[in-house]
Write a structure and sequence with these properties.
CATH architecture of the largest domain: 3-Layer(aba) Sandwich
CATH class of the largest domain: Alpha Beta
Oligomer: single chain
Shape: globular
Strand order of the largest sheet: 3-2-1-4-5-6-7-16
Number of domains: 2
Helix content: 40-55%
Strand content: 5-15%
Length: about 450
């Protein structure tokens, strides 16, 4: 008797099998690492004193996520132990006095440090907690996650956020999807809090203060992601030819990873299409200027799509790659992605059939008022608490630390006349800390 397993189920089972094998091997390895760590006295050094707040960043590019939050925390006098996987993380050069950055010498040392942390709260944008290398430390009270893009929370690899205690979000659709996943997997409900998007708030503030771009000819920004499903992987150099034929000024800003993972392709394209009065290649570390002076963006599944449309309030043209969701959390929900409904409202799709009419697509997207209305709709759905994201996150973290920190016992002393003095520096009682006003932070229960 032959048995048939559909590709999606087969992929899921294979993913689970690999996860089980990987976790078993990793657990065995961690046992010996922990043994050596204890014998060397490292654990005592790490866990004797509890750190109120630790931020973990797995890449320097996420400093833009954490910097505004760290500034808000500094105003509250809250110190941050900032653990990063990048030795050149901008956190090392920050002027913020409350941020104490450190970087492990190797990946093994990094995960050893993370897995034996002694902290009240760990705050991170990295998925995969308690799935592979990064394990929950028994000496950490609470793990908090924040996404690093304004789109579907289900586009993480399977189980990427299952083992966090709380998730800080920006849209109701994200809350609905997490609750659905928890129900399917029989997981305890996490604390879900709508705080907004701090890094986009910062971009919006910067844009408001910046001078308007100088008058210029119509400018098209091509900013693809990288990989076989990205624009260059699908269309190759053809899209550059079609763009140059429009007569518009063209800026090409490849994803930074392309210069590492697709070196030959980048060298080939830059040689075949050298800079001219019609074409420029942009590799600025800060993309603010190039986004500000472009009239329209052409991209694929890069997160810059929502930055450009929602912060700069400009139209986009997007490709619609066939994403295999079988390895993502989205597979479990059997429903269209929110992103799939958002993109047609903020721009038009680029296909093989309409590629030759790209100039008309550009003109339509820029001139059609329905896309401006669509951007307003999408912004309302995915960008809560506009302008106040960093403060909302800092308020939440402060309240959570107080909630989880045992109250100091009241110290009573008698003066020489027998009067009793109460030490007013003692912390709030557990009930008091639980009742701290969270300044309007919207949890699912409090909507």
């Amino acid at each position: 008797m032959n048995m048939y397993i559909d590709p999606g189920t087969g992929s899921m089972l294979f993913t689970i099998l690999i996860g089980v094998i990987g976790a078993s091997i990793y657990s065995l390895r961690m046992f010996f690492i922990k043994l050596r760590y204890k014998m060397g006295g490292g654990k005592a050094e790490e866990t004797d004193k509890k750190t109120p707040l630790v931020i973990f960043s797995d890449n320097k590019r996420y400093w833009s996520i954490f910097e505004p939050v760290c500034r808000a925390l500094e105003k509250k006098g809250i110190e941050v132990k900032y653990i990063t996987a990048s030795s050149d993380d901008p956190a090392f050069g920050t002027s913020l006095s409350n941020v104490k950055a450190e970087c492990a010498e190797s990946e093994n040392k990094l995960f050893t440090k993370l897995n034996f942390l002694n902290a009240t709260v760990v705050f991170s944008t990295t998925p995969g907690l308690d799935v592979y290398q990064w394990k929950r430390s028994k000496d950490v009270d609470y793990y908090v996650h924040i996404p690093h893009a304004a789109n579907d929370i289900t586009l993480y690899r399977m189980f990427g956020i299952d083992y966090y205690d709380s998730i800080l979000l920006s849209g109701d659709y994200q809350i609905d999807d997490i609750r659905a996943l928890e129900k399917i997997r029989n997981l305890p409900e996490k604390e879900l809090v709508k705080v907004g998007i701090p890094y986009m708030d910062e971009m919006a503030k910067r844009l408001k203060c910046a001078p308007a771009p100088e008058k210029h000819e119509r400018t098209v920004l091509l900013a693809p992601s990288w990989g076989k499903s990205a624009i260059f992987g699908v269309y190759g150099s053809k899209i550059i030819d079609v763009l140059l034929a429009t007569g518009y000024h063209v800026i090409i800003r490849p994803h930074p990873q392309s210069f590492d993972s697709e070196t030959e392709l980048m060298e080939k394209l830059m040689k075949e299409y050298p800079e001219s009065d019609r074409l420029e290649w942009n590799r600025d570390r800060d993309n603010f200027d190039v986004l500000n002076r472009s009239d329209i963006l052409i991209s694929d599944f890069s997160g810059v799509v929502f930055d450009f449309a929602l912060v700069y309030d400009k139209p986009i043209i997007y490709t619609n790659p066939q994403i295999d969701t079988s390895v993502y959390d989205a597979w479990w929900l059997k429903k269209p992605l929110w992103t799939a409904s958002a993109l047609p409202r903020i721009g038009m799709e680029l296909t093989d059939e309409n590629m030759e009419n790209l100039k008309e697509l550009i003109d339509t997207c820029i001139g059609d008022s329905r896309f401006a209305a669509g951007r307003a709709e999408v912004k309302a759905e995915t960008w809560a608490n506009f302008g106040g994201g960093a403060e909302a996150v800092a308020d939440y973290l402060e309240a959570k630390i107080k909630e989880l920190t045992p109250a100091k016992p009241e110290v009573q002393e008698e003066n020489v006349e027998g009067n009793v003095f109460v030490d007013e520096t003692a912390g709030p009682s557990t009930k008091e800390s639980n009742d701290i006003d969270k300044d309007g932070l919207e949890t699912e229960e409090g909507k």
